[in-house]
Each structure stands twice: as C-alpha cells, then as structure tokens.
Amino acid sequence: MREEFLVFGSPHIEQAEIDEVVDTLRSGWIGTGPKVRRFEDAFRLYKGCGHALAVSSCTAALHLAMIVVGVQEGDEVILPTLTWTATANAVIKAGGRPVFADCQRESMNVDPRDIERKLSPRTKAIIPVHFAGRSCDMDAIGEIAAERNISIVEDCAHAIETEYHGKKAGMMGALGCFSFYATKNVITGEGGMLVTEDGSYAEKSRLLAMQGLSQGAWNRFSSKGNPRAQVISCGYKYNMTDIQASLGIHQLARVETNALTRKRIWEMYDDGFKGLPVFTPSPEEPDTRHARHLYTLLLDIDRLSITRDRFVNSMKEKNIGVGIHYIPLHLHPFYQGRYGYKRGDFPVAEWISERTASVPFSSKLTDRDVADVLEAATDVLSRSARKTNRKARAVFSRAGSQSRRKD
Ligand SMILES: Cc1ncc(COP(=O)(O)O)c(C=O)c1O
Q1: Is 35 a known active-site residue?
Q2: Which of 6, 162, 297, 385 has the CA that lies 20 to 30 A from 171?
Q3: 56 in ligand 1 pocket by Cβ < 6 Å?
Q4: What three-state secondary structure class fits 176?
Q5: Would you say the pTM of this structure is higher than 0.85?
Q6: pLDDT band at 219 (very low <50, low <70, confident <90, very high)
Q7: Both 131 and 33 in a single domain?
Q8: Is 338 helix (H, G, I), strand (E, B) or coil?
Q9: CA 258, 269, 167, 244 torsion: positive or negative?
Q10: Is there a domain that residue 275 lies in?
C-alpha cells in the first residue's frame, strides 16, 4: 500500500509559477494589475476570442454571465442536474430559477431532448456543462436556443481544452465561464475566466466584477493612473489578483504539454481497468476534443457486492483519494425544499450518481501513482466481484472491458 495519500486532483506546479509568484510578491503590487492583464491576453489568444475577463472563480463568472444576459426575478434557466452546485446557485443569485434537465448515460452531459421538455415561456437561458471535459451536443442545444432567442452560457469549468466541430468551448454561446480551482487542468488556487465575443457583455462584466467602479485599482493607483473613480453601478468584488495570475500565466503556457501527459495517463487507465467490473469513459466523439479533466469510472454495481460509497472508502483506506461527480442537484435538500424536486425525477443522473467514482487524475501523476491506483482498485473490485458461473463471467469480462458508449 502507498504511504502517502494521493489526492484525486493534485495541482501540477513547476518552478516557473513559483518564481513568478515571488516576483509578484517583491514587486510592490499584488492586487489586480499587469499580471492579470497578461493572463487575460494569453487566455484570449489561446481561445482566439474577443474578450477575456479574469475573475475570482468560475462561480463569479457564471453569476456575472447570468446578470449580463438579463436573467431576472421569475426567469428560468435550464441546466443539468448532474453538475456542481455553483451552476445552479449563479442562477439563483441573479434572481432566476434553476430548472434541471436529465443527462445522457454515455456522455454524462445534459440531454437536449430533456432541455426541450423543460422549456417554458419564462426560459431565459441554458447552461450546458461540458462534463469532465467532453463537449455537450452543442448543435442540438444551439438549435433549441436559436429558435426561441434563448441565451447560452457555457459552464466550461472542466473544459479549458475542449473543442466541438471546430469550435472552442466557451465560444459556442453568449459567454463561457472557466474555473482555475485547485483541481482543474489550469490552476490559480481559486480563479476563473469569462470569455465572450460581445463587447457590451465584456464591458458590463468588467464593471460589475470591480464594485461597479469606472476604473479598476491598477488604473487608479499606478504611476499613470488617476485615483478618482466613480461608482456607476452596484457591483461585486470578483476580481482576480496578480498573485493568482502569476500561477495562471505559466499554467496556461503548459496546458498543451500537460494535455499529452493526461492523454497518456488516460490510456493507461483505459488499459488497466479492462476486465474489471467497471465502465470506463466513452471514447472521444469524432470532430471533438475532450479536455480529459476527470477520469470518471462507473462501477458495475450489479456485479459487485459493495456500493459506490464503500468503494470510495476502501480506496481511501488504501491512501487513494476518489471524487464523486456528482450527487445530482435534485437530490440535495436545498433544491428539494425550495423547488420540490425529488428522487426519481431524473433517472439517468441517478443511475450515474450511484455508480460514479473519479480516480486520481492530473498531469502530475507519476507512472508509480497510476500503478498504485490500478493496484488498489483491482484489489477492491476483484475482492467485491459477485461470484458468477463461467458463462456469466465471460459476459462480465467483456462488459468490463467496454466503454460506456458500447454498453
Ligand atoms: C461544473 C462546475 N461548474 C462550476 C464550478 C465552479 O468553479 P469555481 O470553484 O471556480 O467557482 C465547478 C467547480 O468545481 C464545476 O465543477
């Protein structure tokens, strides 16, 4: 058994980030300033988009996006139930009502047919979440939105490198929201980015992210700045700092190199989990790019004597951290209490939720780490596999070696 606990999403930080942070600390300016601007420019170039605004989190980006597309009291916004709470809370904080939709089993992404079923005259926006880094079916979602003049705001928390039919994630709707949280493919500790092609959305978001002030702090306090600023609207304190951007600049510069490492580890997992009672992630769809943010197994619990939670605990006992993505939002007390959701409302998300387990995944993992994960999982899963006759075992072994797409 490994001696040190392996966290499921360990940040991959190198000397360049450390040197840049130290340089910032020594520079005399650690707030929002020239390094944030550098990071925004680099992200804008990476995406090839018109505007990029660095903010304190993806949650902040989603909240700003909801405000600038005009979500107001009584408006509805459709989003998958299988997501992180931030996606729904951004809607609520803007005054809207989150309306959940079920997902597809193979892609684990929101099902466009269920989005259609959830439309109403009050639907103002749709938030597709590119789960684990796999693009949603943006052709179908785009068609639904365009016919009814509904805004699309992409939740790209998992999707920095994601592409779909020649388009980059974040650029297939009105605005795209990215996360640089500690476990993401690019990290700044906490942080996010809002991208858009629309100049007025960008301007309004920039103003709201900095207390609604006519000028940010760097423009007020730098040698060329003017300390007088006017409050133009009641905004938020959502700005990113130069300390965070110092990490982001170098993280983004290595995102493509890290993607190669992620692909290699992904393939090691695909190979290593073959024959075990699990379903591995579906292959990349043609003409798309998967960001490979999470390696999410679905346990074949019908062939196991343990639950998903027992699997997670057994892995932990072996010093391997495992994430759960996600307990669907409609199963949480808050959304049930406020909106009346209940178990049974979204059968596919519930099916996934009972089986989902994300094993450690990061470009920082060594071959030894990957081997430790596979060794621990093989031990737990094979000891918990239900006894089957020879014929059933053959079927089981074929199913276990298949991805969910073929299931
Ligand atoms: C799908 C999804 N959306 C939004 C967020 C919020 O990101 P942040 O923590 O940067 O606010 C997360 C964070 O993990 C996420 O996974």
Answers
A1: no
A2: 297
A3: no
A4: strand
A5: yes
A6: confident
A7: yes
A8: helix
A9: negative
A10: yes
Q: Report the percentage of the chain scoring pLDDT > 90.
A: 89
For the four alpha carbons of 110, 116, 122 and 123, in that order, the dihedral sign comes to positive
Structure tokens, 241: 């700092």
- Token pair, residue 357, equals 């387990």
Distance from Cα 157 to the centre of ligand 1, integer Å: 5
pLDDT in tens, 109-120: 999 999 999 999
26-36 residue pLDDT tens: 999 999 999 99
- Domain membership flag for residue 9: no
Do 249 and 263 reside in the same domain of the chain? no
**Which contacts of 223-231 are long-range, i.e. CB under 8 A and separated by 24 or more positions?**
none
Shared domain for 339 and 289, answered yes or no, is yes
Ligand 1 mutation pick, 55, 59, 183, 194, max ligand atoms within 8 A of CB:
59
Residue 154: helix, strand or coil by DSSP? strand
Instruction: Based on the fold, state whether residues 126 and 176 are members of the same structural domain.
Output: yes
Atom of ligand 1 nearest to the CA of 60: 11
Task: Decide: 155 in ligand 1 pocket, CB within 6 A.
Answer: yes
Q: What is the CATH number of the domain that holds 48?
A: 3.40.640.10
* 112/196 Cα distance (integer angstroms): 23
Token readout for 186 is 């690019």
What domain range includes position 260?
Answer: 256-406
Q: Is the pLDDT of residue 402 over 70?
A: no
pLDDT given for residue 1 in this prediction: 83
User: Does 4 reside within a domain?
Assistant: no
- Amino acid letter, 59: T
Same domain, 242 and 326: no
- Do the beta carbons of residue 50 and residue 202 sit within 8 Å? yes
* Cα of 28 from ligand 1 centre, angstroms: 31
Residue closest by Cα to atom 8 of ligand 1: 58
Report the residue among 53, 55, 56, 58 best suited for mutation to probe ligand 1: largest number of ligand atoms under 8 A from its CB. 58
Query: pLDDT band at residue 218, thresholds of 50, 70 and 90?
Result: low
Active site residue: 184, 224, 387, 406, which one? Answer: 184
Same domain, 136 and 149: yes
260-288 residue pLDDT tens? 999 999 999 999 999 999 999 999 999 99
**Ligand 1: centre distance to CA 84 (Å):** 6
Q: Which atom of ligand 1 is nearest to the CA of 179?
A: 10
CATH code at position 363:
3.90.1150.10
**Ligand 1 in contact with 179 (CB < 6 A)?**
yes
Do residue 275 and residue 240 come from a single domain? no
Best residue among 136, 179, 238 to mutate for probing ligand 1, ranked by most atoms within 8 Å of CB: 179
Question: Mean pLDDT, to the nearest integer, of 59-65?
Answer: 98
